[in-house]
Amino acid sequence: MATTPRRETRTYLKTYECKYIEDRIETHKMYRDFFKLKTKPFEMAPDPRFLFFSETHQEAFAYLQYGIIDQKGFLVLTGDIGTGKTTLLHALIKELENNIKVAYITNPVMDNREFLSYIANSFGLERPRSKVDFLEDLSQLLHHYNRQDKRPVLIIDEAHKLTPELLEEVRLLSNIETPEKKLLTIFLVGQIEFLDLINSDECRALKQRISLRYHLDVLTEEETKEYIQHRLAVSRFNGFGGSIFTDNAVKEIYRYSKGYPRVINIVCDHALISAFAKGQHKIGKDIIKECVSDLEMEVPKRGRSVRVSPSPAKFINRLKANKKAVLWTSAFASVLVGFYLLYSNGIFHKIFAAILHTFFKKGPTVG
Length: 367
What we know:
By secondary structure, this protein is α/β, with parallel strands linked by helices.
């Protein structure tokens, strides 16, 4: 049977995609061999092996571990995008004792019924037919865990995406308790805007129940250097008489990343590939600047002819900065359009004839 053009296109794209993936895998394997690395040191995955304990990360880990073990009720961890919250979370889960049972929600964007069903499934309960069934089943399970000295923990990542209604449902789960202690520890992890949510009037009752709260900060310049060295060490870097990255390169990485671990990973990964392509075992400031330029999608000064259109926001800002020029240009354009319309309709000729007839008593009479 003859293949259709659409099927041929699909097959070609699939082949091209597979070839691209194979090339990327081969490139990464080659740069690992080139730098004598066992694994990729700057992966985006939240691998707990690569967790770097900066001052704030170490404090957060200790506080939250204590809060879970001591069943402190509500715990909150916040931090800006890319500060390492999820990596810290995975490392914390990995270190928990066997008697701690974890239900982990990675994406809480759902309605109330779906949310309760997800929690039930995470704790190994049957799908509830109603909210009453869910609360009864969960209460029985938590009391059963308590008798066996097991400590259940509900972890909700991306908590800043929760609605006030869902947060209220979460708060009500903490009502399952004995006279001595809470039977469920609830751990909320979210971005900075989550603080605005729990400080709102709608969440006053929840705010009063938070026992421990910690905010992750970005890395300092010195911590950025240690962070890069730590990830290379975990990847079993054998070394070329020191670090792959020079001190000036690290300063440039910090200047661009502002100490955000995720951005550091992106820049360093690009830099390793670029250095491998150039055959350089040491990464200096110039390579970092090239990578930053690529990440910012700046137009190269020479070499490739790439054009990057300005974003709508930048275009609007330019207009705001040149209001007078825009107004004069608009007025001039309006006048030109007006003259064109008058001329094309013959009105301009009639007006000119009327002026001549009025002032000089000459010219044709306007009919």
